[in-house]
Amino acid sequence: MRELVEFIAKSLVDNPDEVVVTEHETDDEILVELRVAAADMGKVIGRQGRIAKAIRAVVKAASSNSDKKVSVEILG
After folding, report:
1. Which fold has domain 2-75?
2. Considering the chain, what percentage of its residues have pLDDT values greater than 90?
3. pLDDT per residue over 29-38, tens digit each?
């Protein structure tokens, strides 16, 4: 999932070198944290959070084969 989120985020932002994606795994959940430059936060979140919701929807669809819940957090 980390690679998917990283690919999507780097495609959206002006500073792809500053995109950092980390993945934390527990027994029943995978947490993917996305960090981008402050100037790119609006591009990743989108108007009324539409792009952030779309990223989460794509990750959820991609993880449907997995038994673990996958959640994406966008950190400033």
Report:
1. GMP Synthetase; Chain A, domain 3 (3.30.300)
2. 91
3. 999 999 999 9
